Amino acid sequence: xxxxxxxxxxxxxxxxxxxxxxxxxxxxxxxxxxxxxxxxxxxxxxxxxxxxxxxxxxxxxxxxxxxxxxxxxxxxxxxxxxxxxxxxxxxxxxxxxxxxxxxxxxxxxxxxxxxxxxxxxxxxxxxxxxxxxxxxxxxxxxxxxxxxxxxxxxxxxxxxxxxxxxxxxxxxxxxxxxxxxxxxxxxxxxxxxxxxxxxxxx
Length: 202
Hints:
This protein has helices spanning 12-55, 120-123, and strands spanning 59-61, 65-68, 79-86, 93-94, 99-104, 109-110, 114-115, 134-141, 150-151, 156-162, 172-178, 185-190, 198-201. Helix content is 24%, strand content 30%. The strands form three sheets. Strands 1, 2, 3, 7, 8, 10 and 13 form a seven-stranded mixed β-sheet that branches.
């Protein structure tokens, strides 16, 4: 009996179908690989942009942190004054969006101090508790043109930060300045054993 099967039956049409199938599979695989590559590139780009924004939006302390005790006989600080500026090459920063937190070794804790438009309430507060501390911008130095809420390059802002009753002598206090964008600026100081009306604290 004659064999009806022949290798010659593998026609050009069948070869074309197989070739098209291979091309389609290769195209889909290439699309998946390229999509993953694009996604990775975009993620890396976003990370770089975030890093640059964080690095260019940082505060630094200018000069000493000054502690004020309106009544030194109470053996506690009433408030502290600290001057802040942008780091070199920093971008404008809206300090009204900044979160300031306070803690000390005497049990005082406040994760978010209240921003006050009136520094008078801070400068005269002698009985503040840890949960009602306020802070304000006491002075703006080197401002150019119209004043706004943006700390700009070459400007120095003096912040007055109220202290609770627990900020007493020999206590270690920590004030963290957390801008909306940028690194936290921690201020850790020890209240001296003897207080004058005004003194630098270290």
